[in-house]
Design goal:
492 residues; alpha/beta; Amidase signature (AS) enzymes; three-stranded mixed β-sheet; 16 helices; 11 strands; globular
Length: 492
């Protein structure tokens, strides 16, 4: 029987994924309170990462004690995640009564009035929430270095970014503080940190989960919510927990044919996979180590019985970048209005980061025609992309075109929002196309740079089931669970 009595026992538990920790609790090997206390020990050992910016230890202890007292862990009906400690990204995962700064100085005193639907689903699944993770201001950046809380360190190397905007969650999972943490993805904000930190990062298909009660969708459908995990089965179990719609949602995804956790145990039929290592956007060529990782994944998938052929589903890169820039600028105006309501006045320019202020200013002068045109462009490019993929089931591409980027690259103003995204997309490449089209996409840690940092390889498809099945095949063939960063809580 595992008893969490000291640091070594707490570190030992870090090697178990979420499903594994819940299984220990269900078998009576450990209690929910002990799982939580072990996670708190690991968090305290990893404070230098700056991954967690809000401690919610008391509410976590109260929830864990209630689970233990109820006997829910031992009934057999609690589900595969009950009792597992969990962290919420401080954006898009509101928890009633908890601070919610969203990485912004203008919202540093904001407290959420209600819980997001997806958080309620996490709690219903028995996940024990005990903290919130660092994020860039309003999720605007694919790096996590907000001026409010400071940069989050990448457990693999202090010289490179953990990615963003779910960088705090990614660092916490990569370091072993928790087996999983929540994330959100508008142009790659789950998959980019997954690539930077050597994790599984799934962006679900559009409308797989709900934005209730606060909204119908985010960024006109570009944003999706899910999580960062170390294993495919944890990603599947978490998606099972949050799949569905809230009352009054404007649209919903078709129900999956089976539970995702069940589906990953099944061998998928041979898939027609299109592979490319080129970027859909202008910029430097994909780095050789990334090319090698994608090509090797293609070879492995061929060996598993799938048909892998080169191709390039082109979109109009100029149109896509301009449309995304317009949608982000207008979205920042909406957040500016939230800051006004929280502060009771208009925020000052010095209460925003320069790149955010640039987006807000452009958002205020964006016309209705420009906004409507951006939405129409997104839909038109989606049809173009889907038409070119009609002969394939899956797209195999890089997650990032490089290894983890340095700090200071992806959060600076560039003179215009369009130029800001020109720089971002020259690094991220294909990630935004999954958001624009609404396709599901997953980043898997299948490569390594010469310096030893992770490289993510990305699979895209209209639905999550086949992605998770392919990911499970790759995980079994090319296991990554034993690849631990130097910043692992117990030492690599």
């Amino acid at each position: 029987m595992i008893r969490v009595m000291d640091t070594s026992a707490a570190v030992e538990l870090a090697s178990r994924d979420a499903v594994g920790q819940a299984a220990l609790a269900a078998a009576g090997e450990v209690t929910a309170v002990e799982l939580l206390e072990a996670a708190i020990i690991r968090l305290e050992k990893s404070r230098e990462l700056n991954a967690v910016i809000t401690d919610l230890f008391d509410r976590g202890r109260e929830q864990a004690a209630a689970l233990d007292a109820s006997g829910a862990l031992r009934t057999g009906d609690a589900g595969p995640l009950c009792g597992v400690p969990f962290l919420l990204k401080d954006l898009g995962a509101s928890l009633a009564g908890a601070p919610e700064a969203m990485g912004s100085r203008a919202l540093r005193g904001h407290v959420a009035a209600e819980s997001a639907w997806i958080v309620e689903r996490y709690l219903d699944a028995g996940l024990v929430v005990f903290g919130k993770t660092n994020t860039p201001e309003w999720g605007n950046h694919c790096t996590t270095e907000p001026s409010l809380f400071g940069r989050t360190a990448n457990p693999w190397s202090p010289t490179v970014s953990p990615g963003g905007s779910s960088g705090g969650s990614a660092a916490a999972v990569a370091a072993g503080i928790v087996p999983a943490a929540s994330g959100g993805d508008g142009t790659g904000s789950i998959r980019v940190p997954a690539s930077c930190c050597g994790l599984v990062g799934l962006k679900p298909r559009r409308a797989r989960t709900s934005f209730a009660p606060g909204g119908g969708h985010g960024l006109e459908g570009l944003v999706n919510e899910h999580a960062l995990t170390r294993t495919v089965r944890d990603s599947a179990a978490l998606l099972d927990a949050v799949t569905g719609t809230g009352i009054g949602d404007p649209y919903s995804a078709p129900a999956p044919p089976a539970r995702f956790l069940t589906a990953i145990s099944e061998t998928p039929p041979p898939q027609r996979i299109t592979i490319t290592t080129e970027s859909p956007f202008a910029g430097p060529a994909t780095q050789p180590a990334v090319v090698a990782a994608v090509e090797y994944a293609g070879v492995v998938l061929e060996g598993l019985g799938h048909v892998v052929e080169p191709g390039f589903p082109a979109v109009d890169p100029d149109a896509v970048t301009s449309a995304v820039a317009v949608l982000h600028a207008v979205s920042n105006v909406a957040l500016f209005e939230l800051a006004c309501s929280v502060l009771g006045r208009e925020p000052r320019e010095d209460e925003f980061e320069p790149s955010t202020w640039e987006m807000v200013r452009e958002g205020f002068v964006t016309t209705g025609a420009e906004y409507a045109g951006a939405i129409a462009t997104v839909h038109a490019q989606t049809r173009r992309f889907a038409g070119q993929m009609s002969g394939s089931d899956v797209l195999l591409v890089p997650t990032l075109l490089t290894g983890p980027p340095p700090y200071g690259l992806l959060d600076r103003p560039r003179g215009s929002v369009r130029e800001f995204f020109d720089v971002e997309f020259a690094t991220t490449g294909w990630t935004s196309l999954a958001n624009v089209t609404g396709w599901a996409a997953v980043s898997l840690p299948l490569g390594t740079t010469a310096e030893g940092s992770p490289i993510g390889v990305q699979l895209m498809a209209p639905d999550e089931t086949i992605l998770l099945q392919l990911a499970a095949q790759l995980e079994q063939t090319l296991p990554w669970a034993d690849r631990l960063p130097p910043g692992w809580v117990g030492g690599a």
